[in-house]
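A note on notation is needed here, since sequence and fold are reported together in a single record. The reader may check this reading against the record printed directly beneath this paragraph.
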Amino acid sequence: MKSKEKKIKRELSEKIRNIIFDMLSIVCIIILAIAVTPKTFQNDTYYTIKCGEYIFQNGVFNIKQDPFSWHNLSYTWPHWLYDLIMYVFYAMCGRFWENGIYVLTIIFAVILGLSLYITSLKISKNRVVSSVLSLFALYLLKSYIAARAQLVTFILFVLEIFFIEKLLETNKKRYGVVLLFIAFLITQLHCAVFPMFFVFALPYVAEFVFIVLSDLDLDERIWILILKTLRKITRFEKKKEKYDNMIEKCKKNIDVRRIKREKYRKEPYKVIIEKNPAMITLLIFLLIAIFIGFLNPMGTGAFTYTYKIYKGNTTNSINEHLPLTLADNKGFALMIAIMFVILIVVDIKVRLKDLLMFGGTLFLAFKARRQVSLVIIMCMPILAKFLSSFFEKYDKSLCKIIKKMVTSFAGGIVVIGIVILLSKDMYKEKENAVFVDTTTYPVEASNWLIDYMKENNISAEELKLYNEYNYGSYLLFRNIPDFIDSRCDLYTPEFNDGIDIFSDALSVPNLNSDYEGIFKKYGVRYVMLYCYDSVNVKIEKDSNYILLYNDGNFRIYQRLNVE
């Protein structure tokens, strides 16, 4: 009786310790999430708010023409719901909108950190490892934390893995329904990444297909079929007897293989291959999810948008689409090195699906550096599993001792202090940071241009301003029709009936560019440039251009002879 009471007390004590540890992890994630969230907005934030405003006022299904640039382009909304949410939050915050958007981004960063924690815990069953790696993941993701739709889809992708694992563990249909809801949210919040919903399920599907094919023993069965056919058509008894012997041998081979497979799956040497009957349920829900891709304003765009992006020319010009260089991503390189060391050197067993996920996402990352974020969010829970297996094999008690230490009052204070100390430099960077960087975005130049348009009675349609890619979204935000903005896909031939506005816009700032030919092609009347652009040297000496404004960061010219 006493031993039973002791066991109950021990279990209760462990539950309380787990709750305390979870609360401590949440506090640490919040501290780090605030630190990694940048205060200064990036260009996508501005067009997101403005698109959301337009959708709020006009709806989403009736808008087919881009209302912001002056090129009269056809346009659909790849992340209309996120845009709408951002605008509603912007409008609610009023004159404190900058603080509001900043806080909302922090909230999303916290949710991402917590999603990584619960998913890592689900896969690894180790709180200490899951907590540390969730914090590490947030730190590695700091350059991807921004008021952009991708931040919300990061959360959804992590939760997708969580609910796939829950479905395969329990075979309960409700988790499949949640997966369908996640797929639906992705199509509304950022339908361009909808195909990734299926890409992240592929390792599970591939493992299932591998198991099914290996269990079929197709090579032996096909050979048996051939032998049976040969036996039927032959007239010689000796040959029939020979074929019968060969058929029996093939059948024995199949039995031997089956026994070996079952033995390996029970006691794998390195790679765990799990035969899970719940995979059929998962496959059914994945097939249903395909049809959800059509439930958005872009229709088939959810299936073709990403393909068009990578087929286009933006991948050669925009930094995040360029190939990965590990030297510029030291934290990410460290994560990859740890995973390889554990896989190659350490004697632990790994799931086949985890190897496939790691290899697949790593391939994507080396193709385009923006996909580094996907490796982090998809593989950090896998790394948690690897490390958990390592500790389980070599020192079972270490993580328990650490958990016991940090869940004490003094231990919790020390842990929080360490996280604050490690975040100190990131907090310091925020001290002098501003929401809108006036050296990057034409704040004063836009004020001047709006007044100039009023004074000279110039309508938005008549302005025809050339601007550069990096600050076009801010002009859009200020109700100034732009030449180009960071909705880069809109201006490429794949999305714009063969017209390549994107390449023309990027070529102008160069010293050797044919700026006059490009401006003549589009009928440009006014030109806004960074002061440090090389082409300023030529334009300021060109008699066809008058310098109207110069604030040390931006210049505005008027083009005189406009056809």
